[in-house]
Design goal:
single chain; alpha+beta; Calcium-transporting ATPase, cytoplasmic transduction domain A; 3 domains; 7-stranded antiparallel β-sheet; 4-stranded antiparallel β-sheet
């Protein structure tokens, strides 16, 4: 494109040269702005990883920023905490951690610090999702408590290694870019061949300058300088639509790969379903109670057959059952952006829904 613009300028067609250079500049600007926007979003995600942690230093418990943690620190985890660094667990009590952002497992993983009173021994090639004696940065504690020693921080964590892979510059090729490159190469050879033939025929009938001008005009006219701009704008529209659905696209061509996908393998929980559990029926004291409502929204009622049971009319046995469920519950519900979410185990979140 730039060479075509230079050729146009050399033969005095400044208007066409300006159009070609303008399209090239627009193409480069759109690509730069899109990548800068994606880089900013990725940087914001990295900043969101910073949190506070409860550590024990010199026998005293304190809260410090995850930026101030060092390997060897003793970190305490409780339900609702975000794991601040990679930890080797030394003590747990019913500890479950959601590591879906790292392993892809939507179900919280149950951790263990001992096996028959001894530290568990794992094979060197044990997958991350099966390392029950480790907790990884970015994980979310859904249930229980635990204590662990920091083994890695920052870019040395498993999450940090993924971040470094994202930062690596790689040539992205997609089905569209491969087809476009193949088409461009074939078309270039065809145009150059036709231009050479035109120059050879014209040289036998016209002057050298007329022949070269005809050949150059053919080359410039045959090159579809608007094609890159059309492709860039089309991909930019796709990126914009994906952004509205909270999907970060770092490279423009990457948005095309979704359109080229024929099979998508996905875990059910949290993808095809909402990962929300709701109590619908309770069997207490020989009676069946029906609960209405859905998700974690505190909208619902309790019925015994067709009779509505208000809060003051709860049968003692039903009240005792609900109290027992709440007494051993580590989760709670929060309203975020107008939507109720569970902090903790989804099963216990269903019990919290009943309390609401």
């Amino acid at each position: 494109m730039v060479c075509a613009g230079v050729i146009k300028a050399l033969i005095g067609e400044w208007l066409n040269a300006g159009v070609i250079w303008g399209v090239t500049t627009t193409n480069a600007t759109i690509s730069f702005l899109q990548e800068a926007k994606a880089e900013g979003a990725i940087a914001a995600l990295a900043e969101a990883m910073n949190t506070e942690a409860t550590v024990i230093r010199e026998g005293k418990k304190s809260r410090v920023s995850s930026k101030d943690l060092v390997p060897g620190d003793l970190v305490m985890l409780t339900s609702g905490d975000k794991v601040p660094a990679d930890l080797r667990l030394i003590k747990v009590r019913d500890l479950q951690i959601d590591e879906s952002s790292l392993t892809g497992e939507s179900v919280a993983i149950e951790k263990e610090a001992e096996d028959n009173g001894e530290p568990p021994i794992l094979e060197a090639e044990t997958p991350l999702a099966e390392r029950g004696n480790m907790a990884y940065a970015g994980g979310f504690v859904t249930f229980g408590q635990g204590t662990g020693i920091i083994t890695a921080i920052g870019n040395d964590t498993e999450t940090g290694k993924i971040s470094q892979l994202i930062e690596q510059r790689v040539d992205l090729t997609t089905p569209l870019t491969r087809k476009f490159n193949q088409f461009s190469q074939n078309w270039l050879f065809f145009v150059l061949g036709m231009a050479t033939l035109t120059f050879a025929v014209g040289l036998g009938q016209r002057s050298f300058n007329d022949a070269i001008e005809a050949a150059v005009a053919l080359v410039v006219g045959a090159i579809p300088e608007g094609l890159p701009a059309v492709i860039t704008v089309t991909l930019a529209v796709g990126v914009s639509r994906m952004a509205k659905r909270h999907a970060i696209i770092r490279k423009l061509p990457a948005v095309e790969t979704l359109g080229g996908a024929t099979v998508i393998c996905s875990d059910k929980t949290g993808t095809l379903t909402e990962n929300q559990m709701t109590v619908q029926e309770m069997y207490v004291g020989g009676e069946i109670y029906t609960l209405t409502g859905g998700g974690y929204s505190p909208d619902g009622e309790i019925f015994q057959e067709d009779r509505l049971i208000s809060g003051g009319d709860l049968p003692p046995v039903l009240r005792d059952c609900l109290v027992a469920g709440l007494a051993c519950n580590d989760s709670h519900l929060e309203q975020q952006a107008g939507r109720w979410v569970v902090i903790g185990d989804p099963t216990e979140g269903g019990v919290d829904y009943v309390r609401q």
